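Hi support team,

I submitted a single chain yesterday and got back a structure, but I'm not sure I'm reading the token output correctly. Could someone confirm the output below corresponds to the sequence I sent? I've pasted both exactly as they appear in my results page.

Thanks,
R.
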Amino acid sequence: MKSAAAEPARLSGIVIELSAAIAAVTDESPKILMVRPPDTAARAGLPCGPFDPTGHRTLEEGLRTWVNEQTGLALGYVEQLYTFGNKFRDPQERAGGPRPVSVGYLALVRETEVKSSAKADWVDWYRHFPWEDWRKGAPAVLDSLISPRLLAWRDEARGPERQRRRDRIVLAFGMEGAAWDNERVLERYELLYEAGLVFEASFDSGRKVEPGLVAAQMVTGAALTKDHRRILATALGRLRAKIKYRPVIFEVMPPTFTLFQLQRAIEALAGGPLHKQNFRRLVANEGLVEPTGHMSVQTGGRPAELFRFRREVVHERPAPGVRLPVRVRKQ
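Hi R., thanks for writing in. Yes, this is the structure output for that exact sequence:
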């Protein structure tokens, strides 16, 4: 039986870390805010910092404090995602330091210049997940590298494990005639991690990998520090799901916008094209926006009508989102 005195000692080896996936859309590009540590050799990561139980009244307050300190941003929309605590995800733990347990958050903002001494930059979301962007069709990396490597990984297993891997691959990557589900971002990343196809897998294991896998990791997205790419995958999947039943898309839109700009922003986050006529019909029928009475002359063509988010819709229906399915080709 463990003594009560041993429990605080065990807990003293754990630190709670607060991490923010801050998303925006600019010029039809989905952006995420990254922070680079002073050590230029270290990998970039999400804005994050430890929870101070005496100085932070709540976890969210602590998160907002760290984000403001590191990026200069005062966050608006924030929601908690998940708690991450994989062993040895942090090099400091590997060196004998405390084990971090990270509470991940999703935040939505309109892109603005970061005002901080920290090296914070907006980067394209798909730089870290190139297989998730279907706006111009199936990403080439799927057929050229990911599918063959995953099938080889499946065939390395025997018995029930082989069938389990096969089922996971089919479901996550839409193979064998199955549909591609744009919300399964984390499941796809986890599969690539287990198959050794992302850099974080070899780094976390501390083992050398075959040259072929090293080459594969070079084209499966930019790595992030600790398990921040796992947090980011969770955030992208959550956001794609939430767009369908909550008007969160307007958190990243300017106060006024054209319907074309709204469609492109949704496509950027959802990772696939929307049918123009169906999209506009849905927006009109669902009462998500209302005309401003003004026209935009910055469209490069004919002036386009400007709209704004109709806030009354959140009181009229329990799930006022953009429920149109994103069109992507089956593999």
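A quick pointer for reading it: The chain has three domains: 6-127, 130-221, 247-316. Let us know if anything else looks off.

Best,
Support desk
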